[in-house]
Amino acid sequence: MPSSASSSLFHISPLDRGATGRHAMDACYLCGKPLSTNFDIFMYRGDTPFCSEECRSVQIDTDKARQRIRANILKERAARNEQRRGAPASEPDVTCAANVPVAS
To answer: Contact, 51 vs 42, CB < 8 A?
Structure first.
C-alpha cells in the first residue's frame, strides 16, 4: 500500500482564484469592504457575507422587492394569457419555491 499522498487515487489541488486572487469571503457582497477575522461577519442565505447588519438589510430588502416585482409580472402575464384565451381574468395561484415566485 503506498504511503505517499502523491500516489493516492485522487489528486486534490487548490482552486484557481483567477486574476483577482480574492476569495468569496474576503469582502462584503454589497459594498466590497474587506472583511476582517477580528470583526463579525453577517451572513445571508448561508453563503453571502456582509460587513454590517445595514449592508445585509439592504440586500434583504432588495431581494424582497425583486421577489414582489417577479410575482406581479407573473400575475400580469397570467391575466394577459387568460384574456387572449377569452377566459375571465382571475388571480393565479402564486407560490414561492426557493425565493422564486412560481405560478401554479
So the answer is: yes
